[in-house]
């Protein structure tokens, strides 16, 4: 990756031997590895068995989980918030693990729709919940810094599974808690 960044820096017309740029290929490679570290994680290790028995079968909602991802079309950031809800079925998941699951999928090359689905499916499979709902709102730098250059357009995506899909009242409760 360092070599690739060295090539990019040269190709934009810069002088790779300039003092300020000498360490940049290594730094940029390290930063990119960090921004895509989700590829090196898996669900089991992220959740670390943090599942706890509970007979609470009401909705659990974690709102405003910030996320930083990279769009797979331009490799530019998209930045936003995830809201995740589920209805437990005998067990609940450690609160921080929901945010860790969001990060595991955000820290990859993504499109927002696929990331939303992957997060919902992961939470469903790990918790065995009766239902899962995920809503993500994000702003895409590829639409702001270049291309169409619209600064105020944000994108909202959602994925509803189980009772969030089959029961309109569950979906409405979730959406009304978000508004
Ligand atoms: N649906 C969706 N589209 C995305 C996402 N991130 C970026 N895009 C879009 O991907 C599209 C790629 O379109 P292309 O026409 O192949 O690429 P482009 O010429 O760079 O497009 P412009 O951005 O319109 O300049 C653009 O419309 C982007 O806005 C995402 O998460 N979801
Ligand atoms: Zn893009």
Structure described in brief:
This protein is of the alpha+beta class and 179 residues long.
Layout of strands and helices, then pairs:
Layout: H1 2-11, H2 24-35, H3 43-47, E1 51-53, E2 60-71, E3 77-87, E4 91-93, H4 95-106, E5 109-110, H5 112-127, E6 131-140, H6 141-144, E7 155-162, H7 163-166, H8 168-178
Parallel strand pairs: 2-5
Antiparallel strand pairs: 1-4, 2-3, 3-6, 6-7
Zinc ion binds next to loops.
Structure overview:
Belongs to the GTP cyclohydrolase I family. It catalyses: GTP + H2O = 7,8-dihydroneopterin 3'-triphosphate + formate + H(+). There is one protein chain. This protein has 179 residues and is an alpha+beta fold. The chain has two domains: 2-35, no CATH class; 51-178, GTP Cyclohydrolase I, domain 2. The protein is 41% helix and 27% strand. The chain has helices at residues 2-11, 24-35, 43-47, 95-106, 112-127, 141-144, 163-166, 168-178; strands at residues 51-53, 60-71, 77-87, 91-93, 109-110, 131-140, 155-162. The chain has a five-stranded mixed beta sheet with strand order 5-2-3-6-7, sandwiched between helices. It has a two-stranded antiparallel ribbon with strand order 1-4. A hairpin with a 5-residue loop joins strand 2 and strand 3. The longest helix is centred in the C-terminal third of the chain and has 16 residues, at 112-127. Guanosine-5'-triphosphate (GTP) binds at residues 71, 73, 111-113, 140, 142-143, 147-148.
């Amino acid at each position: 990756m360092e070599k690739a960044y060295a090539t990019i820096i040269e190709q934009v017309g810069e002088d790779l031997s300039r003092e300020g740029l000498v360490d940049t290929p290594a730094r940029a490679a390290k930063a990119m590895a960090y921004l895509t570290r989700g590829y090196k994680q898996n669900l089991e290790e992220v959740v670390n068995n943090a599942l706890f028995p509970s007979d609470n079968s009401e909705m659990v909602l974690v709102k405003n989980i910030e996320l930083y991802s990279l769009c797979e079309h331009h490799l530019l950031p998209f930045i936003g918030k995830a809201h995740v809800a589920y209805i437990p079925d005998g067990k609940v998941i450690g609160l921080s693990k929901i945010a860790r699951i969001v990060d595991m999928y955000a820290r990859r090359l993504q499109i927002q729709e696929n990331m939303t689905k992957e997060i919902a499916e992961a939470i469903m499979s790990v918790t065995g919940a009766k239902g899962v709902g995920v809503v993500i709102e994000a702003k895409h730098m590829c639409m702001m810094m270049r291309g169409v250059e619209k600064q105020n357009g944000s994108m909202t995506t959602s994925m509803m599974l189980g009772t969030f899909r089959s029961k309109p009242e569950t979906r409405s409760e979730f959406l009304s808690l978000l508004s």
